[in-house]
Amino acid sequence: MSGATINISEVIGTPNAISQKFGEIVYSRAVTFIKNKESVVFDFGGIKNLTSGFCNASIGRLFLEFPLAGNLIHFCHLDNSLWKEKVDNSIHLATNPEESKLYDSALASLFAD
Amino acid sequence: MAYLIHDIENVPPDQFESYFFDANSWIIAIKLSYHSQEHPYEKKYADFFDAVINAASLVDPKLIRKLKHKPNISITSMLMSELINAYMRKIAMRMWFGGGQVYKTKNFKEDYRLKEDSDYSKQLKILVNDIISYKDFTTVVDDDFKKIDPFTFIGNLSNTCDFNDLYYYYRFVELKNTCIVTDDADFLFQDIPIITGNPKLLKHSDIK
After folding, report:
1. Of chain A residues 80-99, which have a CB less than 8 A from chain B?
2. Burial of B17 (0-12, 13-18, 19+ CB in 10 A)
3. % helix, strand, coil for chain B, step of 5
4. Could you tell me the pTM of the whole model?
5. Can you tell me the ipTM of this complex?
6. What is the pLDDT of residues B44-66, one digit of tens each?
């Protein structure tokens, strides 16, 4: 099966995977392969910081839009256990839309307090 | 004296040297899933935070030269306390108990924080790691509580202004270069730049 390895730090030009925009850049790089049912390996080598927001905007969004993404997306150099948790959380939220909705509603309620 | 209140949708991220996002804005900014289109109001804060981080992350000298300021994000000890407490009590605990209002009937310490099978430790570690991820783009502001003169300061507390809001006002009004980002309608102070999407604050703005 053809596909691509996406080195995140090279694609976003920084070791800080900490913004929604950077997540969208990674999403855009990967989405064509996923649409064509080609595999994508996300390489976390060189990353210094990784946030939940980045994971939601990149990996989470791919899982949200493509139900078969789980068969096509793989990771390497994802050795940090907390980063692994963040990636898993983003996948969990994307594949559980009701929970995601409750989560965002809980966040929105902060402004209503 | 003037209300220097800016609409969050109209402020370029390089307009001010430093931004102080209040605790709720921080939480929205770093935790909104972006999966739903149902929260465009809250997303404005997440987008603005993101824009500030992106401007702060620039490394290309040509791009940096185009900025009015290369911004950073100001934090204080009280902010960090508010941020962690609010997220763990109002979001993490709420989600642990199903995401609805059930969490309000539970005891934070006994039913969540100290409960062995809860996800408290995991959620705390992720939150803390998320916050630490922004370290390179933040400026730590000392509390300077002594300088603020707390015994004069608390005399100004009222039913519309809580201690933390008043403290932030006193602390940042003297710094001149820091803009407060908040959705809190109570944060109505003069002569300090404020960025908000809240129409209750924006209607007072003296900026034309």
Report:
1. 82, 85-86, 89-90, 93-94, 97, 99
2. middle
3. 50, 10, 40
4. 0.94
5. 0.93
6. 999 999 999 999 999 899 999 99
